[in-house]
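User: Small ask, check this?
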Amino acid sequence: MTRTVDIVQKLWNLCNDLRDDGVTFHQYVTELTYLLFLKMAKETGQEEGRDGGVNIPPSNRWDTLKAASAPDRLDHYRQTLLDLGKSPAPLVRMIYADASSFIRKPATLSKLVTDIDALDWYSAKEEGLGDLYEGLLAKNATEKKSGAGQYFTPRPLIDSIVAVMNPTSDDIIQDPAAGTGGFLIAAHHHITTHEDEYGWPETKQRAYYENAFHGMELVQDTQRLALMNLMLHGLANDPERSGIRLGDTLSSDHQKLPRATLILSNPPFGTKKGGGTPTRDDLTFVTSNKQFAFLQHIYRALKTHGRAAVILPDNVLFESGIGKAIRADLMDKCTLHTILRLPTGIFYAQGVKTGSWLELCPTGNALRP
């Protein structure tokens, strides 16, 4: 793990070169994801499309970018982004959808390509490329100027919630506000740590990787990071059937999410952008308060015998008016098992106060199978 931390720090230090080229912290990780996807596809042998690989055309691969002459490399890179945004491979197309480079100077790109290529990729693969990328996302979340903390729930908190909820390979797991995919990845890690996936029948393995994990993310750049994260953890084999979709759970997009036996989520706090209300028409209580709208989605989206753990701000517990009505509806429809107050300062995002972690399940069912 020490080697992964060292590589993450080296990757993060590359942002100094990008800042000199006018690239912001938020843009930096997106830009780096475009490059790392190509490099990691090469390192994992997936670029040729074999065994569920991502199938990148030779003209768009890492080695071709590296071999381009320095004066022409930036133009070649920009064309690669356009080409991959039209790729027939769903995962590639989703990661590079509407992609454009923030880099203006050819010398900046050349230094990035050289420095990324020189990293200790053997050690990174030994310790896990998924862990490396998670480390980069965590680093970005702790940087206040990046603003990424709102999309990144601290991993120790996620791991604690997942351990308590004890997901299994029989679960259909959903995160309606997926961010960079932390809950889904942690649930997958928990399952494969406690079960022998290689002993599952082939039909179960296929069902697990194709239909067990579902999420939705509103911000396209964040969805790119999530798809990259899922890919490096083996969870993006068929992103058109499962994985993290681009969309708004508080609109009709929610219909793309199947009902779940387990929902794990940290919905966004505050009011809906512009002060508007959700555009979906199936919520009993119409409100611009996003956490109340997401809470309604969560307990409505659970299957019988389902269960959920959700992080919410404390006002959900004490607000009067429509908040009180939603709480009454929640208590009528579900068994509220646990409310746990979280420590102050646990979140990366600026201005996020302490919240609470709620565990619930439909009325009459045990919380855990």
